[in-house]
Amino acid sequence: ERNRLARELHDSVTQTVFSMNLTATSARLLLDREQHRAAGQLERLEDLAAGAMGEIQALVSHLRPLPTVQGDVAAALRGLAAGRQARDGLQVTLAVDGECALPEAVAGGLYRIAQEALANVVKHSGTHEATVCLHLAPGASFLEIEDGGLGFDPQAAPGQRGHLGLAGMAEQAREIGWHLSVESQPGCGTRVRVQEHPHGGAL
Questions:
Q1: φ and ψ at 91, to 5 degrees?
Q2: Which among 133, 125, 130, 132 is positioned nearest to 184, based on CA atoms?
Q3: DSSP string over 44-105
Q4: How far apart are CA 170 and CA 113, in angstroms?
Q5: Which H or E element spans position 132?
Q6: Is the dihedral of CA 76, 80, 86, 92 positive or negative?
Q7: How far apart are alpha carbons 33 and 58 in whole angstroms?
Q8: Is beta strand 129-136 parallel, antiparallel or unpaired with respect to 142-147?
Q9: Ordered per-residue pLDDT tens for the chain, 203 residues
Q10: Rounded to two decimals, what is the model's pTM?
């Protein structure tokens, strides 16, 4: 978890603060020569500061203790959805079907994946709606988080700023012995799916 947070800090907050420093330096130089352009740089600095604060708040939320999810993953996801709506105005539709008891570690891992996926919707998708589908069945359970937003190229994303959350979700899935896949393309939304390995085998 510390390694994941370190990656997220480097990917988001550290680079944002670096951009803030460059923008502040540019504004200071422009104040002596072109004051009208300095105002634009200061406005950009305000936007960067607001963005950094939002990213820090999101990371801090990941440090809070996990809710008790053993035996009731659906209730934990409902609480997560309600929290996202209250904080960010994200409308999350939750669909749950089937019944299957999950180990506490697996339930917690699924919660973390849903938490990260919905954070990505807020930060990157450009939409205010998402769907979370939880299907529970012995040996065939899965969780999907889908949005109809901007989408992206999954092949290019690992090398781009702002998408290290995908690596964190994949790592979380491996830790609980599940498989994570991401389907997306520019302009066509994104679907994150994590599913149980059938009969304990690899997909």
A1: -90, 110
A2: 125
A3: HHHHHHHHHHHHHHHHHHHHSPPP--TT-HHHHHHHHHHHHHHHH--EEEEEEEE-----HH
A4: 8
A5: strand 129-136
A6: negative
A7: 39
A8: antiparallel
A9: 666 666 666 666 777 777 888 888 888 788 777 777 887 888 888 888 877 776 776 666 655 555 555 557 888 899 889 988 888 899 999 999 998 888 888 998 999 899 889 988 988 899 999 999 999 999 899 999 999 999 998 877 654 544 557 888 998 899 999 999 999 999 999 999 999 976 544 44
A10: 0.69
Question: Which residue reads 């993953």 in tokens?
Answer: 73
* Per-residue tokens: 77: 């996801």
**Cα angle: 19, vertex 24, 26; to 5 degrees:** 95
Considering only CA atoms, which of 159, 94, 92 is closest in space to residue 121?
92
- 144, two tokens: 């999907």
